[in-house]
Amino acid sequence: MFVGEVVGNVWGTRKDRSLRDRALLLVRPIDPLTEEPLGDAVMAVEGGVGAGPGSVVLVLDEGGSARAVLGDEAAPVRTVIVGIVDAVSSGGKVKTYD
Questions:
Q1: What is the pLDDT of residues 62-72, one digit of tens each?
Q2: Whose CA is closest to 81, among 12, 25, 15, 29?
Q3: What whole-number distance in Å separates Cα of residue 8 and Cα of residue 90?
Q4: Is the full-model pTM beyond 0.70?
Q5: Which of 19, 56, 69, 95 has its CA 20 to 30 A from that of 44?
Q6: CB 79 within 8 A of CB 55
Q7: Cβ(57)–Cβ(4) below 8 Å
Q8: Residue 83 forms beta bridges with which residues?
Q9: Residue 89, φ and ψ in degrees, nearest 5
Q10: Would you say 64 and 29 are in contact if contact means Cβ atoms under 8 Å apart?
Q11: Which CATH number covers residue 11?
């Protein structure tokens, strides 16, 4: 799992049936306290939490678990957004997101 910022949408002319009603988003991993980027953006399936561009999200990056979250063991998925982050607390520091 990692915390990331949704930086864009992904569109395709065709999707697997299991993804037909799901949004595809680009998520860039960030340090949750400083918001510094930690790597390249990856594509993730929106898991039904209402995330969109600008959201700070919790991302599950493991295929079997991602498919379980979607309820479809045959879905061609590795990465799914499972939550929107409101705040992070670590080492006595607290970072809140609007």
A1: 988 989 988 88
A2: 25
A3: 28
A4: yes
A5: 95
A6: no
A7: yes
A8: 58
A9: -125, 125
A10: no
A11: 2.40.50.220
Number of domains in the chain: 1
Q: Between the CA of residue 94 and those of 4, 17, 59, what are the distances in Å?
A: 17, 41, 20
Residue whose tokens read 């080492």: 91
User: 80 and 45 in contact (C-beta within 8 Å)?
Assistant: yes
Q: How many CB atoms lie within 10 A of CB 25?
A: 25
Tokens of 98: 């609007």
- Would you call 96 helix, strand, or coil by DSSP? strand
- Residue-range definition of the domain harbouring residue 59: 2-96
Angle at 92 between CA 55 and CA 3, to 5 degrees: 25
Which helix (H) or strand (E) segment holds residue 82: the answer is strand 79-84
The amino acid occupying position 26 is: L
CA–CA gap between residue 7 and residue 94 (Å, rounded): 23
Contacts of 97 (CB under 8 A, 6+ apart): 56, 85, 86, 87
CA-based end-to-end distance of the chain: 21
